[in-house]
Amino acid sequence: MGFLVTTLIFVLVGIIASLLTRICCNKGPSTNLLLLTLIITATVCCWMMWAIVYLAQMNPLIVPILNEEE
Amino acid sequence: MEYIHNLPTMDLMRSEKMMFVQLILPVESAHRAVSYLGQLGLMQFRDLNDEKSPFQRTFVNQVKRCAEMSRKLRFIKDQIHKACLTPSSNSSSQSDTDLEELEIQLAEHEHGLSEMNANSEKLQRTYNELLEFKMVLQKAGDLLLPSESPMTAQDTELKDNVHISNDYADTSSLLDQEMLNGPSNQCGVGFVSGIIPKSKVLRFERMLFRTTRGNMLFNQAPAYDQILDPATNEMVEKTVFIVSFSGEQVRIKILKICEAFGANCYPVPEEMTKRRHITQEVLSHLSDLKTTLEAGLCHRDKVLTSIGFHLPKWMNMVKREKAVYDTLNMLNFDVTKKCLVGEGWCPIFSKTKIQEALQRATCDSNSQADIIFHVKDSVESPPTYFQTNNFTYAYQEIVNAYGVAKYQEANPAVYTIITFPFLFAVMFGDWGHGICLLLGALILIVREKKLGSQKLGSFMEMLFGGRYVLLLMSLFSIYCGLIYNEFFSVPFNIFGSSAYRCRDATCSESRSIGLVKYHDTYPFGVDPSWRGSRSELPFLNSLKMKMSILFGIAQMNLGIILSYFNARHFRSLLDIKYQFVPQMIFLNSLFGYLSLLIITKWCTGSEADLYHVMIYMFLSPFEDLGENQLFWGQSFFQVILLLLAVIAVPWMLFPKPYILKKLHSERFQGRTYQSLETSDIYTDRDYDSASQSDPEEFDFTEVFVHQMIHTIEFVLGAVSNTASYLRLWALSLAHSELSTVFYEKVLLLAWGYDSLVIRLVGLAVFAFATAFILLMMETLSAFLHALRLHWVEFQNKFYSGDGYKFEPFSFAALNDGED
Asked: CB A42 to CB B422 under 8 A?
């Protein structure tokens, strides 16, 4: 799967998570905003981690060189 | 932009709004009002009697009474503990026993208990003495027996004591015979019988021998029973002795020596019948005493149990009363001496609750006058109050450990909730270890109620307090472990096949030139082919270092953006224009550009040397990039960025102090006279604190130096903080290597052998090493480094942390504090 497709999946997961928290724990607008912030932060962090590792492997400059024993 | 500015306020982002209130309490309802406020726990009283010593305060007598009562309660608790009774703690309802009644009751109980204790001590002593007497009688009877027959003829009504030494048994009888045969030996020959602790017998005998110059006979026999020594409360072995001597002077000396050595002397009649008679008496006396003692103990235990039933409730009550009087001591009497005046802080949202509590107090105490509660202005900064729940409490404590937020500034805890466990996970990434941590966290959370009511050791308490932090840390660790593709350092092909394969069917070149990428990139995480290859470390190091830089720049940018929101909240346009903007420009034109280069290099697969690019951007910016060029127009772009960065530094440094000076002189231009202020007794003290921002003085050098320090800190910090984020790489590498070593060199090595014993031993060593080194030490290490990244690199972009915490007068906090 490509980069953009997986990015869209992350965005989708984030939206679903925020909708779920809105349904389960709806305790007023200020709390909702806090929960939304937390979910956005978590989604962005996780996406960044994935994207960095994916981009680094897209056009590699070195390849695996197996060890002697194997 | 307007949408962002019009959003509702976020929970936990800024401190609750506080207001400074003044309470006027009539004397009859003051006590009740303060205790209701204590139950509510939302008001922090200011100590208006700061200068007074504790003995000058109004309610010092009541406080002393409470202290006295708690001393009595502690005494009773001690007694219960000594009697080895388990206190039946029942948290019964608040049946309002009056404080005076309680005082009287406690005095009675204490008096009764001390009396009981004294009596039982006396009885115990008498019992001991009688026991010793009984033993002396019995043993002395044996010792005296050989000399019985010849002596019955003589008159033994006198207190004659014969010494018989066991050691010289043969010679002694001869001596005896000699002594007794002599008719003139009636007077002057006597014996002293008694009992002495076994450890002192030898010295005692030697001392007697020396003082009597050998003219004595010492006979001893061990007592068959151990006796309870009342002083040390333990069982001591004793020896019965009989010293025979001659002469009255010697007797006095011997008695003195007995006293010195702590030997108890008891008179033993020589006649057997008399002895038997006395023994009977003593035995009956002993059994009487024993029953009395037991009855006494039984009674005391009953009394203690009945008191112990009420004890926790009483202790609670006394604690609360003392707290209420301490708070009342903080208030002032007003001019008419009929009201108490108090000042304090409370959150604005609690206004109705407080007013309702005060109303209730007025009703309950049947007071005629209402309690007055009104808002005042205050010069000093309000305390900071964040409403936290079980989940956010731990994170708020983590942030508060560095410094409590200034009133109404942005709270880093909001982002720390996610970024702290996430950065921990970047350094800890292994989904096998993550699952272990998750199990631990789940155990703590599931047994929350049970563990919460127990008293835990300090380490367990910290662990229990951070259970939700641990939960998030473990979840993110599992995620990062899946990305790094490490399960106890073993990679798996969970997300499809590897993207690499041999160049040809024979795989002949796989060990020299390596594999080739024939497929699309491995969809999630690090390709499993890397593990174990020779080029694994160069690849992973490059990946993790660049990842650390990217995360660092992202978090620092977040910090600077938070400083923008702070500036906007405090309406400081100056800060926005001359601090936020140049800081953003400086950081992003240098290190944001580096991030851009990293991403571009990854996307295009170019072989440009980024070190070279960055360094020569400064050293020779107009030089042609040659083969290090990543995109068209790069050198021109670099020159622009360099210029922007160079301009940003004086932009941060110079304008703000000059503009502040101009604003200050504009504001106080016309003020050549100081205006008369009406003196208010309560705000007199407030003016002292206001004098520091004296309107006439504006120290320009101080402001300028402050700004210079701030600028230098930011500029140098931009480089050092970015480099500091490389610890994410370093710890991740260490964790991965340790994990690999334990797996390959312990588990695989042991599994290579055929013997079951070696395999089990290897498994055990692997388990211990993983648990202690990786799960405990690495967790603590990664925790600490993630904490440092938050406290220093993230928070110094926007956080001032010089506020003080809101500590309301609350009964609930009292219990937590004392326990």
From this structure: yes
For B349-485, where are the E strands, in sequence order?
372-376
Query: Which residues, other chains included, contact A32 with Cβ-Cβ below 8 Å and sequence gap of 6+?
Result: A21, A22, A26
At residue B231 the predicted structure's pLDDT band, cuts being 50, 70 and 90, is low
Q: Closest approach of chain B CAs to the CA of A15, in angstroms?
A: 17
Q: Is B507 left (phi over 0), alpha (psi -120 to 50) or beta?
A: left
Chain A: residue whose CA lies nearest to B485? A53
Beta bridge partners of B375: B21
In whole angstroms, what is the distance from residue B304 CA to residue B314 CA?
Answer: 14
Residues in A lying within 8 Å of B, measured between beta carbons:
1-2, 6, 29-31, 33-34, 37-38, 41-42, 45-46, 48-50, 52-68, 70
DSSP B384: B
What is the C-alpha to C-alpha distance for residues B419 and B425, in angstroms, rounded to an integer?
Answer: 10
Chain B residues touching A70 at Cβ < 8 A? 532
Output DSSP code: residue B588.
I
Q: Select from B51, B25, B679, B62 the least CA-distant residue to B344.
A: B25
Tokens of B421: 């466990």
| Bridge partner residues of B21 (DSSP) | B344, B375
Q: How many CA atoms lie within 13 A of B52 on its CB side?
A: 14
Encode pLDDT of B243-265 as tens digits. 888 888 888 888 888 888 888 88
Mean pLDDT, chain B, whole residue set: 84
This prediction's pTM: 0.81
For an interface test with A, the pick among B5, B9, B411, B418 (most A C-beta atoms closer than 10 Å) comes out as: B418
What is the tens place of the pLDDT at every residue in B340-386? 888 999 999 999 999 999 989 888 888 888 888 889 888 889 999 99
Residue showing tokens 């450990």: B401
